[in-house]
Amino acid sequence: MSELVELDQVVAYLQQHRDFFVDQPVLLREMEIPHESGGATSLIERQVNLLRQENRQLHREIRGLVQVARDNHKLSDSMQHLSLELLECEDHDDVIASLYESLREQFGIDQVVILLPHGETEESHELFEALMRDSVPFCGQLEEEQRHALFGEEMEHGASVALLPLGEFGAQGLVALGSSDPEQYHDKMGTHFLVQLSALVSRALQRCGTP
Questions:
Q1: Which of 72, 98, 141, 177 would staple 162 via disulfide (CB 3.0–4.6 Å)?
Q2: Which of 92 and 18 is assigned the larger pLDDT?
Q3: For the chain, what are the domain ranges?
Q4: Could you tell me the CATH superfamily of domain 88-208?
């Protein structure tokens, strides 16, 4: 009985407010109002359903674009923070320490390794010379020997990696970013941010001189 009373109330309200759906276009788009056409689906119904599907797809795309914009804004803020940190560095050790901290805390990267072409890391650095011969970031999965040289046992098979050469052909070293997600870094992804990050760190190391 209460359902009938509620239905009557709705009908009465709509009769008194005949422009209700004019002010509620979103609700109107979501309503299913069959068109009288016997047992078959009318052309009007099919057109309306197609428009609804297109509208939902458009909303999904808009939400995706909004999320990308938010991610880019966050990335821009993190890059600015790192830039300011590097400006205050006085030597190579300061640059490396600031880079580690920023990549882990500001950028939220799982694993960060920095190899310099001298000292204890020189032999490991040589394993990646072929990947740095074009002076562009490498994104994808490494061979087991290369992965272990960077991350030891912390990164399992299937982990994805981004390698950022510092300087031409990685002459200043390389930065390795690791993720347990196989799809985090891949050969189809954009590398604009990675190129910017590499150039920024390279310039900071140059400014501080040879260690």
A1: 177
A2: 92
A3: 2-60, 88-208
A4: GAF domain (3.30.450.40)
